[in-house]
Design a protein that fits this description.
2 domains, two-stranded antiparallel ribbon, about 55% helix, mainly alpha
């Protein structure tokens, strides 16, 4: 490949091209462009425009909100169970549980009176 000046028809530069050199040059340019793009996104404020990426304070707030949401869901489920049991009691629909039929030997306490 020869680069020639159009005005003077003088050879400016000469390259000897082979398939291997063209492949290496194209691969190097490709890798360099990928690296520059990744560096541009990683080290500038462009990363905040990517979906799912946020600031550290946003991540902390998200974790706190998730913990609060889990505790509220648990409290809501417990409240629902309580209200269901209260409705059953008020409607006279009592659930019976098996009773413990073992005999307990409880010693009587002697109280001294004066």
């Amino acid at each position: 490949m020869v680069v020639i000046n159009d005005d003077t028809f003088e050879e400016v530069i000469t390259f000897k091209l082979t398939r291997l050199r063209v492949y290496i040059a194209a691969s190097s340019i490709f890798v360099l462009l990928i690296g520059l793009t990744v560096a541009l996104v990683a080290f500038t404020n462009l990363r905040y425009y990517l979906p799912g990426y946020g600031t550290q304070s946003q991540r902390k707030a998200l974790v706190q909100y998730k913990v609060k949401m889990d505790s509220l869901e648990l409290a809501s489920r417990q409240k629902d169970v309580y209200l269901d049991e209260l409705k059953r009691v008020l409607s006279g629909e009592l659930r019976t549980f098996p009773r413990d039929t073992t005999n307990l030997q409880i010693p009587e306490l002697e109280i001294e009176t004066q």
